[in-house]
Amino acid sequence: MIYITGDTHGFNDIDKLVLNKTLASLTKEDYLLITGDFGGVWDVGMHDEDILDYYSKKPYATLFIDGNHENFDLLNSYPVEMWNGGKIHRVTDKVFHLMRGQVFNIEGSSIFTFGGGLSIDKAYRTIGISWWPEEEPSEEECAEAMENLEKNGFLVDYIVTHAAPESIVRNEINNSHRLLCLDCKAEMFLDKVLEKAVYRHWYCGHYHFDMDIPNHRLSVLYQSVLEIKSGSKV
Ligand SMILES: [Fe+2]
Question: pTM for this structure?
Fold first, then answer.
């Protein structure tokens, strides 16, 4: 089965995984999918080795999309390969980065992935050390995403993104959490995906709270761990 959760930020936000009894019983047939800000490809050296070692010792594979807080120089230094219908960076034998704009087929479910987002604290970060402009999607990545959706007739089972579509951020999310709405390219692009795609459920991370938005069948994830098909918390 496929389980999904929100930002993990290296070791900072993995108690939800470490303490989860269902995850402790998963097998090599299962997958854990993290909706960005994985934070395990950040520093060359002990920091990353320890985090990647934690995930690599699990029987299941850990899949992640990129968030805004990733070291994109390092992430993009891994060779690109095809896996289950889409492009990945294979970080270890058990940890795969699912790239932007891909449609994967995993356990019979089609999953469209699109990482990236905007760091609201980027003014306090240093380019190439703690912030990378690649956090926001390029025109090529957006075009590839639309092409891949079109190849699938704009019909997928699940959409997994770091950011949420801008219209949902401005309305449903902002109504309850009063977020700053900035010009985020990822959010703006995801509005176009929202207009065109037909999907069973949409999962995103990024905002650091958990929220269900039933009218869009969208779940914002942070601490929750869900089974992707039923949407049940585990
Ligand atoms: Fe985050």
Answer: 0.97
Work out the number of other CB atoms within 10 angstroms of the CB of residue 184: 23
Amino acid identity of 44? V
Ligand 1: distance of its center to the CA of 153 in Å? Answer: 31
Q: If you measure from the C-alpha of residue 134 to the centroid of ligand 1, how many angstroms do you get, rounded to a whole number?
A: 15
CATH topology for the 2-227 domain: Purple Acid Phosphatase; chain A, domain 2 (3.60.21)
Distance 157 CA to ligand 1 centre (A): 25
Rg of the chain (C-alpha set): 16
**Cα of 207 from ligand 1 centre, angstroms:** 7
**61 to 1, 30, 97, 126, 213: CA distances (angstroms):** 11, 7, 11, 32, 28
What are the per-10-residue average pLDDT scores of the chain (234 residues)?
Answer: 97 96 97 97 81 96 97 96 98 97 98 96 90 96 98 98 96 84 91 98 97 98 98 96
